[in-house]
Design goal:
binds adenosine-5'-triphosphate, 369 residues, 2 domains, Rossmann fold, Glutathione S-transferase Yfyf (Class Pi), Chain A, domain 2, binds magnesium ion, alpha/beta
């Protein structure tokens, strides 16, 4: 899919903005703190109703105003989609899809597909496991909104269990109530683990092919789901396996006052030619793996939804060498891309249509033509 246009009123540092986009490459160029990322953030909001930078709506509304508006018009293979968001201080977001008001934010999911790639993602491999879990969770949730719901519930149950465990340490009588929480935890946790395993299996196949191409067949990438619970072939057996592990770990859990096993401890193993790249990879290798994973994510969304997502590249081009830039753009010839950059010469090899190079200066956007 691609976006035809964007309108902003009182969003971040913008008073009013109306842009028409190219179906392929759009570039926002300007100095720091001018409003480039703000535009990408607005686009992202129309996909998930969430920002990738803040959870506070107030921050999205222009400092001296009390309400903001975002509108995008998108084109899909068979239909057009219009998404409008109204943000108002102290109120719930109001979202309209094709003119109809939605009762829940989650109803917006599965309309505008967006993948963001930022310098943070280049660190995906070398950061701690929580970053990789976030990667997995966000990707699955985009394709399957119910996953988010399970994840939120799991996290709540986990918190309750941890609280209870701390109390049991001083008051053994409370032990009787532990089973209820255990059962909820293993049921929700098993759902998460099965989804994650399915996702990683597919992302592994796709990223391996992409990685081979980027490295000219020199590197063999493997991503592996690393769970603290032994996974079985079906739901029931995995549930049993989780239950057994929880029972065995009870003493340790009570001593430590926390739940030591479960999907909240999951990680994604990343191996290149059999070597764990999280610990032993060079920076360049880690970046290339991150790039392969992101590109695989785009293919996966295409496979699931029959639409290519929109790609937001925030400040990432200057971090990639010419070879990788060229690969990225070539591999994504059917994807609409929004690029932010401080310098056009960071986009060495790209032949961008001049009309779609937008200069951003203190919340004013203009093009060269
Ligand atoms: P960089 O190249 O450093 O990433 P950028 O052009 O991407 O810069 P943005 O993050 O888009 O910059 O915009 C940052 C600017 O927006 C800052 O000057 C900030 O003060 C301003 N800003 C952020 N939120 C608001 C708001 N709610 N109201 C008014 N201005 C805001
Ligand atoms: Mg920025």
């Amino acid at each position: 899919m691609y976006l035809k246009s964007l309108k902003l009123i009182n969003f971040r540092n913008y008073n009013q903005l109306a842009l028409e986009f190219h179906p392929k490459i759009n570039v926002f160029v300007g100095e720091n703190a001018q409003g480039k990322t703000n535009i990408l953030e607005a686009i992202y909001l129309t996909s998930t109703a969430k920002s990738f930078r803040t959870s506070k709506d107030r921050e999205l509304i222009k400092f001296d105003k009390d309400r903001a508006y975002i509108k995008v018009e998108g084109k899909k293979r068979y239909t057009d989609t219009t998404v409008e968001l109204k943000l108002e201080e102290g109120k719930k977001k109001q979202i309209k899809l094709n003119g109809m008001t939605l009762s829940k934010n989650s109803e917006l999911l599965n309309n505008v597909y967006v993948v963001v790639f930022s310098p943070e993602d280049l660190k995906l491999i070398k950061e701690g496991p929580s970053e990789r879990r976030k990667f997995i969770d966000n990707e699955i949730a985009q394709m399957k909104p119910s996953y988010f719901h399970h994840l939120n519930r799991y996290n709540k149950v986990l918190m309750q269990r941890n609280n209870l465990i701390k109390k049991i340490y001083h008051n053994k009588k409370l032990m009787d109530t532990l089973d209820i929480w255990n059962e909820k935890l293993i049921e929700l946790g098993t759902k998460l683990m099965m989804e994650r395993e399915r996702f990683v299996t597919r992302i592994n196949l796709l990223s391996r092919l992409i990685h081979r191409k980027i490295t000219e067949n020199k590197e063999n990438l493997e991503v592996r789901y690393m769970s603290s619970i032994e996974l079985k072939n079906d739901f029931k057996d995995t549930l049993e396996s989780f239950r057994k592990t929880l029972q065995e770990a009870l003493d340790v859990d009570l001593q430590r006052g926390t739940t030591t096993f479960g999907p909240h401890r999951d990680d994604l193993g990343v191996f290149v030619n059999g070597i764990d790249i999280r610990s032993f990879g060079s920076q360049g290798q880690q970046r290339t793996c991150a790039l392969s994973l992101k590109l695989a994510e785009i293919e996966l969304i295409k496979g699931e939804t029959a639409e290519y997502p929109i790609l937001l590249l925030d400040d990432v081009m200057s971090e990639l060498d010419i070879k990788r830039q060229t690969f990225l753009i070539k591999a994504l010839k059917d994807v609409q891309i929004f690029i932010t950059t401080t310098e056009m010469n960071h986009l060495n090899e790209l032949n961008v249509n001049k009309e779609y190079i937008f200069h951003v200066k203190n919340a004013v956007v203009y093009n060269e033509s």
